[in-house]
RNA sequence: CGGGGCGUAGCUCAGCUUGGUAGAGUGCUUGCUUCGGGAGCAAGAAGUCGCAGGUUCGAAUCCUGUCGCCCCGACCA
């Protein structure tokens, strides 16, 4: 591509409404332009990168045996009513009516549509398993779109849906997709991690997210150093150790005027935070004997609200009791609550259950208890995994120590089970002629998000640094004084033609710009390989080569072969 | 949805408190000089000051409404 014919809309200034580096760079380098909140146009150079990522995804899906389809972005509301999600989905789903006043929505996902088609066409077990995928625009009306392409409203997504006769075959395909995802993320040059995700489904349904590691990531990941365990902190388990020291101290009520927080009490009584048990009061689930329920946590731990919401005795979604409700139930302020002589039922987190001789609130203003013990001073409580995992915890699988990383969710593989096939009455006949409801899996990759995510972990002060596999061009040829020197012009044109002939996507900066601006643009748009041709280097029959990642340029022989050698580098 | 902020030249912003001829930088056009890390000088084109009302002799500026966008939070998956 001749840059004189290819508008490079680069700017020096950083747009004020871009918060994260990938968003800033994509605007500055002219990859995207904003049309509205969460809506972006891909300009020619940016689109080249998007298409490359898209093709890698397509190749790997094809290789894994999935079949590409293309479903409409506009979906009939009827199907969503059939699955029951029309009323469940919130404002995230953009709804509208056509001229006949029929309900429609802009696709946020496509389980309903694909299930509808499979129901039309798939009748026999002989036709299964099957895995359909598409790479198509989605729209989710996020309440707060942000971070450019990272959380846009309209985005490009690869979504795949597989159908199976039984859970075993679903599991096989799940791992098949997982392998395909590993290949995709590896090929686009991302440093990533597959982590266990929130798997709410009963029946051992598996769910894993593929995260690109980046400090700007919205998700926190718990990864075992020296082990293989990795999970989204929302889903990271905390296992009981099964050990608790015997009670050795006598129960004693002490005056702790004004000491309301765990930190304050810990310092005031000179006991470590790990020796304190705190009690959170939350709303109980419908049908529980008491409207409130207490959750006991060790002093240094935080509640994991996802886990709490899933506990059968806790109201979902999770809701904390108000100070007034606590006062009514306990007759004291929230700073002095404890599980001993507690007026409401208590569930203890495993870690809180394993503390002996602990300090806790006395359920009386300005007083705490010392030397408290489960079993002796209160009934042995029901226990559950309720706390958030913390760095330094032992890995739940027993191998390694937990460390936190930030990640950007780029993909998700999920065993759906029969949720949609059942709701939408999809059945196929098995070899005995019996109708069977197929098992489903779904597998997504945020294609446009992946572009931003890779960039998020691959940039420097000069701008973008694209991996070869998804760079808009692999090589940029920068002739110095092309207008003045026939030799430079001829050499640059020849190299440009030769590289293209060799199948290398090459940009020729024939704009006649000054060297400074040429180099700055080449760096900003992140072309991985740069060849500079000037009279000085040609005098010694040399080109100047610089890798985008390298500090300095180096001289190479002025030949196509020498350049190709560097690309193989 | 709650709180805060911003809409002025293609882009980034000043001007608004205290009403009186529309500004800068950058980008763009032309010319001359320059030419290895975003050049210099000169000339030039470019804005119904988000939109609609109102107050006023006069509104970018004050008031009301409205739309759009951004940030924090909550919410959702």
UniProtKB/TrEMBL annotation:
Subcellular location: Cytoplasm
Pfam (any one): HGTP_anticodon
Biological processes, Gene Ontology terms: prolyl-tRNA aminoacylation
Single GO MF descriptor: ATP binding
Catalytic activity reported: tRNA(Pro) + L-proline + ATP = L-prolyl-tRNA(Pro) + AMP + diphosphate
Keyword Iron-sulfur: no
EC number, UniProt record: 6.1.1.15
Main location: cytoplasm
Keywords noted in UniProt: Aminoacyl-tRNA synthetase, ATP-binding, Cytoplasm, Ligase, Nucleotide-binding, Protein biosynthesis
Domain Aminoacyl-transfer RNA synthetases class-II family profile: 38-467
SUPFAM superfamilies assigned to the protein according to its UniProt record, in alphabetical order: Class II aaRS ABD-related (SSF52954), Class II aaRS and biotin synthetases (SSF55681), YbaK/ProRS associated domain (SSF55826)
One GO term describing the cellular component: cytosol
Known partners and oligomeric status: Homodimer.
Its biological purpose: Catalyzes the attachment of proline to tRNA(Pro) in a two-step reaction: proline is first activated by ATP to form Pro-AMP and then transferred to the acceptor end of tRNA(Pro). As ProRS can inadvertently accommodate and process non-cognate amino acids such as alanine and cysteine, to avoid such errors it has two additional distinct editing activities against alanine. One activity is designated as 'pretransfer' editing and involves the tRNA(Pro)-independent hydrolysis of activated Ala-AMP.
Protein family membership: Belongs to the class-II aminoacyl-tRNA synthetase family. ProS type 1 subfamily.
Domains as described in the record: Consists of three domains: the N-terminal catalytic domain, the editing domain and the C-terminal anticodon-binding domain.
PANTHER family noted in UniProt: MITOCHONDRIAL RIBOSOME PROTEIN L39/PROLYL-TRNA LIGASE FAMILY MEMBER, PROLINE--TRNA LIGASE
Name of this protein: Proline--tRNA ligase
